Amino acid sequence: MPDAASLSDSGPQLSLPTLRALYAYWAEKRRGRPMPDRADIDPIEMRAWLGHLMLVERKPDGDYIYRLYGSAFVNQFKVDMTGQAISSLPAPQADLLRAEYDAVVNSAAPTTRQYTAQFESTSRDKRSSWAVERSWERLVLPLSNGGNAVGMLLVAAYPIENTPEN
After folding, report:
1. CA end-to-end span of the chain, whole Å?
2. Superfamily for the 13-159 domain
3. Over the range 56-72, which residues count as b (16 or more CB within 10 Å of their CB) and which as e?
4. Suppose 160 and one of 25, 46, 72, 135 were both cysteines; which one would form an S-S bond, judging by CB atoms 3.0 to 4.6 Å apart?
5. How far is CA 109 from each of CA 9, 71, 135, 137, rounded to the nearest angstrom?
6. Model-level pTM?
7. What dihedral angle (degrees, nearest 10) is formed by the CA atoms of 6, 9, 12, 16?
């Protein structure tokens, strides 16, 4: 994970144009501040990204709650995490996410990563199942709640397709 010093004003190194556009939107909303406020983010302006967004609230006890869990994730992972804590996830996954989210909270700077995971799926009629390996690119952006501290995280993730324009 890059540290805050490695992220220049031009933003983190992102391979996907969709994530670069989201970072540009976030950077514009900063208006000279370290990060935008949650109130600066307009859902109507974010329509292009909504299915691939998560809005994650940091709780005083250090846990994180999904306040929005995009439809692309619900479709891929077959679970809606809206209202759920990351502590409800399997320990290795929760630990990875907590470390990633804590790094953004502590640095107040965006971070990005690419990863590959295996996803299992079952047909609607439950007659067949399969596993597919898919690579993703993820961007985590800090948001304040009316101050200088990070109160929420805007997280976006997209599959990385094997196309030359990415």
Report:
1. 20
2. PAS domain (3.30.450.20)
3. bbbeeeeebbbebbbeb
4. 135
5. 11, 26, 24, 17
6. 0.82
7. -160
Cβ pair 79, 66 in contact under 8 A: no
Phi, psi of 71 (to 5 degrees): -60, -30
Domain positions in the chain are 13-159
Token digits for 123? 């047909």
Q: In degrees to the nearest 10, what's the CA dihedral of 143, 145, 151, 157?
A: -30
Contact in structure between 45 and 158 (CB atoms under 8 Å): no
Question: Greatest CA separation found in the chain?
Answer: 55
